[in-house]
Specification:
The chain is α/β, with parallel strands linked by helices. The chain is built from 10 helices and 13 strands. Strands 1, 2, 3, 4, 5, 6, 9, 10, 11, 12 and 13 form an 11-stranded mixed β-sheet that branches. A two-stranded antiparallel ribbon has the order 7-8. Bound molecules: adenosine-5'-triphosphate.
Length: 358
């Protein structure tokens, strides 16, 4: 008997008069412009979502902005997020992205790395689910200089958080007809921390006899990913390996501008571009690819139960990228961000023309 089968995760969603309220964290770099594109696309698709915008000053020495944003997500249950910069020079100010995930206990990051048929890349037909522990490991932010010239940094792995994320991976596999879960680790060197993660995987796997389970060391995993990515199905790993592997995978598929990432806890959900880049160098130039943030917005709509709106926007993105080949420079094209958004809007109008759409 599967002891996890009955666990139901209840995530609150603020809804007023049929409209959902969602916290919007534009972040820095290209974040604000990408959010404007989401607003534009939502307007044309008639999406019943109102945003509560929470800007965060990267240079501030306090955390009032962040606390306000966290309170807003607690109230709304759901957030859409760009990457938040931390430019304060104060030593006590830690990464606000990490702080937000920890405060809301968003213990799992989920990225679906699926090829776009219309985007030229080294491989086609990749469809890998990457499940990453999102709140501990090397991101514990516990570093100190014990004596001058010697820095200690703690990697925290707990049985409880490992089990939660591994269980999520197997449940996901079961629910979505996936065949295999691969645990990525470095337990040959980090025998206790990664050892615990690996042992927990083996223990959880026993409760899912229909799903094949194997494991791979992170360095071999990187080599296998670039030489034969089709061998992977669902991958589960600790925090730092997750950020590296997700970037490798997004790079294999077409770069930082396409794929979205989902962050879940037992109570809240936050959606963002998969690679979590700030894109400072390309901000304000009308060249950032809007697709990763639009896909994050689609994930958010699915989470809120607005499946029809999500489908329409997804189809419009698909037509723009895979059929019309309207590609920004990151995909080797010459289109501007606005060209992409205008094409998405045009397809939304066509797709909803004959329907009683509101
Ligand atoms: P920084 O905080 O210094 O900006 P970062 O780790 O956030 O660094 P970036 O340099 O922002 O990473 O992003 C990595 C690469 O991905 C850059 O070349 C950037 O231009 C590109 N990139 C990120 N997002 C997008 C996007 N939406 N469209 C096109 N290119 C993107």
């Amino acid at each position: 008997k599967n002891p996890f089968a009955k666990k139901v995760i209840a995530i609150p969603k603020a809804e007023y008069g049929g409209r959902h309220s969602v916290t919007m964290l534009p972040g820095g770099g290209i974040g604000p412009e990408l959010m404007n594109y989401v607003r534009e696309v939502f307007r044309y698709a008639g999406v019943p979502v109102d945003f509560e915008e929470c800007p965060i000053d990267p240079q501030s020495d306090g955390n009032e902005d962040l606390e306000y944003a966290i309170t807003s997500i607690r109230r709304n249950g759901v957030g859409l997020k760009g990457n938040i910069e931390t430019r304060s020079l104060s030593r006590g100010i830690l990464s606000r992205n990490v702080a937000l995930r920890n405060e809301l206990d968003l213990f799992v990051n989920v990225i679906r790395c699926k090829s776009f048929p219309g985007v030229k890349s080294r491989y086609q037909d990749i469809d890998i689910m990457l499940i990453r522990q999102n709140t501990e490991g090397e991101y514990a932010m516990l570093e100190h200089e014990s004596v001058p010239g010697v820095v200690e940094s703690m990697k925290i792995v707990t049985a409880e958080n490992s089990e939660r994320v591994i269980r999520y991976a197997f449940e996901y596999a079961q629910k979505h007809g996936r065949k295999k879960v691969t645990t990525i680790h470095k337990a040959n060197i980090m025998k206790l921390s990664d050892g615990l993660f690996l042992e927990t995987s083996k223990r959880v796997a026993k409760h899912f006899p229909d799903i094949e389970h194997d494991s791979m060391i992170i360095d071999n995993c990187c080599m296998q990913l670039v030489s034969n990515p089709h061998q992977f199905d669902v991958m589960v790993m600790t925090n730092l390996y997750g950020t590296i592997v997700s970037n490798v995978l997004c790079g294999l598929i077409g770069g930082a501008g396409l794929i979205s990432g989902r962050n879940y806890g037992d109570h809240y959900a936050v959606f963002e571009p998969g690679t979590r880049n700030t894109g400072t160098a390309i901000a304000g130039k009308n060249i950032a690819n809007p697709v990763s943030m639009l896909n994050a917005a689609v994930d958010m709509l699915e989470h809120l139960g607005h499946q029809n709106h999500a489908n329409i926007i997804l189809q419009a993105i698909d037509k723009t990228i895979n059929e019309d080949h309207i590609h920004t420079p990151d995909l080797g094209g010459q289109a501007t961000s606005i060209d992409v958004v205008q094409s998405v809007v045009k397809h939304i109008q066509e797709l909803t023309k004959d329907k009683n759409w509101s």
